Amino acid sequence: MLTLWHDSLVQARQAGLEVIHVRHHDKELVKGTADWEIHSTVAPLASEKIFDKTFNSAFKETGLHTYLQEKGMEQLIIMGMATNFCIDTTIKVAFELGYKVAVIQDGTTTGYSGKLDAKDLIDYYQNIWSWNFAQVDKLENIIRG
């Protein structure tokens, strides 16, 4: 997964897209600890914004929506961790806020899936997103439009 994320970041940067990182803080990912830090393979460049969050949504109490509005951004391309928690919530909130949302196919992962294995759970969510909330595709196809 880290390879896909790294390659996607490189591709997005080469395409001139602004890359924004969102980092979660809670009792399991304590701010300032190694687990909280963004992995070095996908580390932000010095010029890239990082929004810290404490809720599933990347938008709740982070300033992300205001930042995107100020920059005139209308489309979001999403990848990351916690398919069934943070990613799902962020996609649906972004959709409700009027953003055109795209998700990198197989670009999300989960550490908890309950009765489903992670692959089935990710496929399930990608199907829901593609029918209702977001384009789910390879990054090169998303960039091409």
Structure write-up:
- This protein has helices at about 1-15, 65-70, 85-95, 120-130, 140-145, and strands spanning about 20-25, 50-55, 75-80, 100-110, 135.
- It has about 140 residues and is α/β, with parallel strands linked by helices.
- The strands form two sheets. Strands 3-4-5 form a three-stranded parallel β-sheet, with helices on both faces. Strands 1-2 form a two-stranded parallel sheet.
- The protein starts with a helix and ends with a helix.
Given the helix and strand composition, which structural class is it? Answer: alpha/beta
The major beta sheet can be summarized as:
3 strands, parallel
Measured on Cα atoms, how large is the radius of gyration? 14 Å
What integer is the average pLDDT? 95
- CATH superfamily grouping: Isochorismatase-like
- Report the uncertain regions: none
CATH domain topology:
Rossmann fold
The helix content is: 25-40%
Alpha carbon gap, first and last residue: 24 Å
The top-level CATH class is: Alpha Beta
Strand/helix succession: HEEHEHEHEH
Q: What coarse outline follows from CA principal-axis ratios?
A: globular
The helix count comes to 5
The tally of beta strands, per DSSP, is 5
Beta content comes to 15-25%
- The strands making up the biggest β-sheet line up spatially as 3-4-5
How many individual domains?
Answer: 1
What is the CATH architecture assignment?
Answer: 3-Layer(aba) Sandwich
EC number: 3.5.1.-
Pfam families: Isochorismatase
Enzyme class: hydrolase
Domain Isochorismatase-like: 11-111
